[in-house]
């Protein structure tokens, strides 16, 4: 048990709409057994973008800035502007550790992990920086009018 946090990339496929001209072959096996998927009915694909465990300061940021203070294990839409904002804060704290408590404070909670500003805290920030940089670089490489590659992000946590 513990605070498990997920950021998913949600890719709009819209195969159910003829004008999208989706051509797909889906071959997924779980435990060696084929999973039957009708490609013509794929609406969205959810792809794991980032996963944290007990990075309670990151979770608190999402609760405060994305979830309107509701810490309820719900799923919430996250914009790329949110990701940029959090990355900017992470970079500022990594550049000056003394700003951690002010800019990205920890949060105690049932199974939320340690609240110290220690190596685990800063490792979580380094991981966030690495993953968000990859995500945002990929997003920035897309043409603004590229509807084929449109995607959204969603955050959810459980404990």
What is the radius of gyration? Answer: 18 Å
> Biggest β-sheet, characterized?
4 strands, antiparallel
- Oligomeric state of the chains in view: single chain
Q: In what range is the share of β-strand residues?
A: 15-25%
Mean of pLDDT: 93
Order of helices and strands: EEEEHEHHHE
Helix content: 25-40%
Terminal Cα separation, in Å? 6 Å
Structural notes for this entry:
This protein has 159 residues and is an alpha+beta fold. The protein has one domain. Helix content is 33%, strand content 23%. The strands form two sheets. The protein has a four-stranded antiparallel beta sheet with strand order 4-1-6-5. The protein has a two-stranded antiparallel ribbon with strand order 2-3. Helix 2 crosses helix 4 (119-140). The mean pLDDT is 93.
Throw out a few tags for this protein.
159 residues; alpha+beta; four-stranded antiparallel sheet; two-stranded antiparallel sheet; 4 helices; 6 strands; globular
Layout: helices, strands, pairs:
Layout: E1 4-12, E2 28-30, E3 33-35, E4 44-53, H1 56-65, E5 75-78, H2 80-95, H3 100-103, H4 119-140, E6 151-158
Question: Concise description?
Answer:
The protein has 159 residues and is of the alpha+beta class. The protein has 4 helices and 6 strands, in the order E-E-E-E-H-E-H-H-H-E.
């Amino acid at each position: 048990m513990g605070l498990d946090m997920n950021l998913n990339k949600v890719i709009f496929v819209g195969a159910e709409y003829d004008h999208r001209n989706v051509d797909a072959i889906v071959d997924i096996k779980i435990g060696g057994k084929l999973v039957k998927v009708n490609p013509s009915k794929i609406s969205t694909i959810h792809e794991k973008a980032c996963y944290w465990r007990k990075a309670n300061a990151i979770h608190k940021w999402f609760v405060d800035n994305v979830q309107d203070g509701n810490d309820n294990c719900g799923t919430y839409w996250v914009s790329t502007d949110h990701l940029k904002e959090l990355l900017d804060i992470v970079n500022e704290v990594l550049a000056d550790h003394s700003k951690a408590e002010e800019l990205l404070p920890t949060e105690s909670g049932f199974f939320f992990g340690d609240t110290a500003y220690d190596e685990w805290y800063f490792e979580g920030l380094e991981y966030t920086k690495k993953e968000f940089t990859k995500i945002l670089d990929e997003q920035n490489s897309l043409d603004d009018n590229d509807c084929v590659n449109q995607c959204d992000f969603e955050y959810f946590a459980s404990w």
